[in-house]
Design goal:
Oligomer: single chain
Low-confidence stretches: none
Structural class: alpha/beta
Number of helices: 10
Helix content: 25-40%
Strand content: 15-25%
Mean pLDDT: 90
Largest sheet: 6 strands, mixed
Shape: globular
């Protein structure tokens, strides 16, 4: 006869979000660019953050990246309340931002970009090009094994390969939370597929991603949950598998959750 222990009968511990932003408010003068927004992100998850121009999504993410600290609200990383006043604070918590422009130095190669501003040096003080290239090959081998152009300036790389370099730079320096701003903008189908593979690899490594995008198709391809903003407020966060693109479009335009949208409103939206 087996006896159960208190430990065996205990309910499983709830998962702790990688990031939790609670009641975030950001004002520019008297304008509430972000007004009481709460979102969370779990390890290995992609949250698509969508909304029209001026919805507040970029401002919300700037509060997390330290580019524009929140006026009010709380941010938790792995369950611990943190203070993020500038980008250096964000980096210390493993938060990295990959902007649409990628912020790469076009005239140097992948390794030089990976270590830009954080170069490795030999004991004599000269640049340790060998060590930097070796580290670049290691991280790129995990993220994008097809990447072979280690010796050429990044300006000659395709958009997808340039995205790989920007992501590798973040991951090499221990990013656990990635903010990706329009990662497939201006990319062709093949390069977009390459970015999709990169995102999947990041998820497999347990990295959480906030994905900012105007492209609803992009969001449905890459995100697990979708958070919709309108006029600085959160309309809601939905599971991608439980909504249609039209329903998310209604959230973006009308500002209502799928169950709140009438048949007439939906018909007018898609007509």
């Amino acid at each position: 006869m087996t006896t159960s222990t208190p430990e065996a009968n205990a309910a499983p511990s709830p998962r702790v979000p990688l990031v939790e932003m609670r009641d975030i408010r950001v004002s520019y003068g008297g304008v509430h660019a972000v007004d009481g927004v709460s979102v969370d992100l779990y390890p290995g998850e992609v949250i698509g953050l969508v909304g029209g121009n001026g919805a507040g999504k970029s401002t919300l993410i700037k509060a997390l990246s330290g580019a524009h600290p929140a006026n009010e609200g709380e941010i938790f990383i792995n369950g611990q309340k943190v203070s993020i006043s500038n980008p250096r604070d964000a980096k210390s918590y493993g938060i990295e931002t990959i902007y649409q422009t990628l912020a790469l130095a076009d005239n140097v190669d992948a390794a030089a970009n990976l270590f830009l501003g954080r170069e490795l040096r030999t004991r004599l003080g000269s640049l340790d090009d060998g060590a930097m290239e070796s580290a670049t090959r290691e991280v790129m081998g995990r993220l994008n094994p097809k990447f072979k152009n280690f010796k050429v300036p990044v300006k000659s790389l395709s958009g997808g390969q340039r995205q790989s370099v920007a992501i590798a730079r973040a991951v090499h320096f221990n990013a656990k939370i990635l903010i990706m701003d329009e990662p497939t903008a201006a990319l062709g189908p093949a390069e977009t597929a390459q970015v999709r593979e990169l995102v999947q690899q990041l998820k497999d490594e347990g990295i959480g991603i906030f994905l900012i995008s105007h492209d609803i198709h992009d969001v449905f391809d890459l995100a697990d949950r979708i958070s919709v903003m309108l006029q600085g407020k959160l309309v809601g966060t939905v599971d991608k598998t439980k909504v249609t693109k039209d329903e998310v479009l209604a959230m973006i335009i009308i500002g209502k959750l799928p169950e709140e949208v009438s048949a007439t409103e939906m018909a007018e939206l898609i007509s």
